[in-house]
Specification:
Largest sheet: 4 strands, antiparallel
Strand order of the largest sheet: 3-4-6-5
Strand content: 15-25%
Order of helices and strands: EEEEHEEHH
Distance between the termini: 91 Å
CATH class of one domain: Alpha Beta
Number of strands: 6
Structural class: alpha+beta
Amino acid sequence: MRRAAGRPAGVAVTGPLVFRGVEVPAGELEWRFSRSGGPGGQSVNTADSRVELTFDLARSPSVPEALRERMLPRLAHRLVDGRLTVAASEYRSQHRNRQAARTRLAEILTIASTPPSAPRRPTRPTRGSKERRLAGKKRRSETKSLRRPPTDG
């Protein structure tokens, strides 16, 4: 199967965004385009290749309530009025920047939605581990005592 020139295979730019089995419809994603800084050749002053992808996590009907309550505190430092924004401008092509922004947003949402780890069950050191620790301390003490100058006594 051949693909169109200049279009990398991989992430779809349209369609729902999927993370951890949750489908966010494309209508809930807001795109903004602007001119990107850096090199770009002849099209640098005319092409809007920089991409900003915004997702309203706090008001999204597609994210289950339990998941939203887990994600909001974890992403609090990145949210502005409950909205998460991701920018991409590393490529000269708007299409590739759109793919990069979608991928980055999916990664951020996946990491933020990971379930909490199980609480640690306190354990006690085994008898053997205590004995090994004390034997090591004794060996170290003897090594250091050999370095001391002899005491007259």
